[in-house]
Amino acid sequence: MSTPAAEHARDHASADGIAARARGLTKAYGSGETTVLALDSVDVDIARGRFTAVMGPSGSGKSTLMHCLAGLDSVSAGQVWLGDTEITGLKDRELTRLRRDRIGFMFQSFNLIPTLNAAENITLPMDIAGKKPDEKWLDQVIDTLGLRDRLKHRPSQLSGGQQQRVACARALASRPELIFADEPTGNLDSRAGLEVLAFLREAVDSLGQTVVMVTHDPGAAAHSDLVVFLGDGKIVDEMEHPTAEAVLERMRLFAGGNTQTPGFDVVRDQFDEGAAPAEED
């Protein structure tokens, strides 16, 4: 199944309004009888200036999709573009430069350098590239994320939520075309997780960024504009303007009502009665 945007743009080279796209994206691991097809001829478009969540049970291919779209993993077949640039034919050095200059990353582990303070961690990718940050933009990012009074603190002096905000600022600092977030709230308690999701939402709404987030959490997906559902390496559905309850119900349908399917146990108790997740003290 393709997303509607992919269907409409299938034969068009223009990437106007599209931050990233894939056509016939296939990723296989192994060979012969041991081959595992992680992605199976996926067509997808990621719209600019929107927050897209990618969901699916464990093993559905959601992280593989993100890694291939971001140029972090090679593809077995198909094509991937960032804007108008096809990345599937780029050499390693060109891919490294593209990721550094045009993509921001957030991961479940914060990946902060413990010997650097927050300000230094935020500008580290640009420092490595020998580029000076746009100070006006950087100030806007820092203030949007509420980090002004934490810039001199090292990671060990910050809470988990504050560390993830620093990671978010680092992803935003170079004003990338696209931000990929892989389970960015996975190591946070519910309150800190909600803060980070709110900041990602703010990055889209106030800063004009484009965010793609891989998550297993319906509550996290509810912060997005669009949820793309994967199953067995294929896009099986999508949902505009999602709510946590609607996302969980859709996921249950894909699993044939089996709430023991991997990926559901984390959120089952929170949403069984349609309740929002409880905040931790």
UniProtKB/TrEMBL annotation:
Indicate whether Transport appears among the record's keywords: yes
MF terms in GO: ATP binding; ATP hydrolysis activity; transmembrane transporter activity
Name the coiled-coil region(s).
none
Question: Entry's InterPro entries?
Answer: AAA+_ATPase, ABC_transporter-like_ATP-bd, ABC_transpr_LolD-like, MacB-like_ATP-bd, P-loop_NTPase
Q: Which CDD domains match?
A: ABC_MJ0796_LolCDE_FtsE
Record's keyword annotation contains Lipoprotein: no
Q: What is this protein called?
A: ABC transporter ATP-binding protein
Q: Which organism is it from?
A: Streptomyces guryensis
